[in-house]
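Researcher: We are triaging several targets before committing to wet-lab work. For this one, the compound of interest is manganese (II) ion. I'm pasting the protein sequence and the ligand SMILES. What I need is the predicted three-dimensional arrangement of the protein with the ligand bound, expressed as structure tokens, so it can go straight into our comparison scripts without reformatting.
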Amino acid sequence: MVAATDLQTTPSDRLLEVLEDYERVLVVMHDNPDPDAIATGWAISCMIEERLGKPVRLIGGGAIVRAENKHMVELLSPPIELVTDIDVVNTTATILVDCDIGTTNQLATRSGIVPIGVIDHHLNDSDPCELRFKDVRTDAAASASIAAGYLREQKIEPGMKLATAILYAIRTETCGAETEHSPLDRSVVKWLTAFADPELLAEIENAPLERAYFGDVVLAIQRTFVYDDAALCFLPRASGAEIVGEMADLLARCRGVGRVLCAAIIDGDLLLSARTERGSGNAAELLQATLVGLGGCGGHAHRAGGKIPHVGQGQKISEDLHEEIRSRWLKACHVDRKRGTRLVARHEIVENL
Ligand SMILES: [Mn+2]
């Protein structure tokens, strides 16, 4: 007799079965793909090529800005393409990785392309539209853990670079208060460690930083205000989109700060990052309450990002919008204080110029 478990098909089997009907596959990462989107897409592409032998393209919009992520791409050469638009025929199966159909931060939705599948771990309450394949596990620290699980199910050994990329993705998704590892994350970390190169991982994490980065950080810290346990920082300048999230990660580590909101104007849009400590609320919900009617957002319980499009040119946000976001954020955080305290006292900043 065959055990019941032998008859169960795995998620990767189901995905491969759906893809049988198509000639080629387009794997779409979210814009400004991060290590998780890159590693997930890479693992999925690898599986499709190995098992089905169909041509796969792995694409995303925007750019890779964060120094560590650029270094990751240089050292590991993931097969990604950064593009501005896409055009697909109906013999192409489109799969979203590390993002969902309800979001506009990816090329498929913006181009009106209906994907056949989604592999993601973000919180998303958009309607469960008819997708042929959907694997969204919000308890997974990284989408890349789900994709690594597929490789393991298919008994495909990842090469050294792919294994390193997936491990790095899991590392980056478990920062700040989002350190929790699900049983899946733990088991794939163990499995991948045998294939990955720890030296490359260390090199990526210690990537060289541009001088502009230090300027962004010092100016942001000077402009950080704390209201009880809620911090707020409008970055006076940002050399890249990812500095907003990096500042939020840094400020979230400040003792006594449980909630952080950072914002900066990049190419005319206001980009926002929220972080919450465990027990200090849900970052995605707080950001949503702050942005309702102004812009969109998405993310996780303790890390979330959002955007208010077209707020103007230059790097300075208007007084009105600044005040609106500040008061909404404090209200969402249930903070009554109207005046904040500088994270670093003004006199110290001035004395040490
Ligand atoms: Mn992710």
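Researcher: Any quick observations?
Model: The chain has a mean pLDDT of 93.
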